[in-house]
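User: For my dataset I need records formatted as: sequence, then structure tokens, nothing else. Please produce one.
Assistant:
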Amino acid sequence: MAKKKTKFHFVNEIAESLPKIATVSRSGEVKFKRSDVRQLLENTFLSAAKAASGGERAKFPVIGTLVRREVKARKAAMGKNPFTGEPMQIKARAASKKPRWSFPKTLKETFANKKNW
């Protein structure tokens, strides 16, 4: 039976993993070890990177989205050095897939607002 491909959700992944690392004290307080929380976050970011490399869009609340970008191949050509004007050889480049990070509009506006500097 084929595994159903679901969309990656950062918050859902954290919410599913948090109860697994939680411990309850005798007084009823829920506690988390700092090292366990750190490991949980690292594993979640790694799984997001794997999902993005597989072609999914990995969204992180407030900070942005990670997605795979297709870079087209380029043929070798002759060009001109913009500084000296002499001819130069431009190397060929194979097609590849690279990560692309996009920030949400609200974060861009926060950085653009001078009162936050």
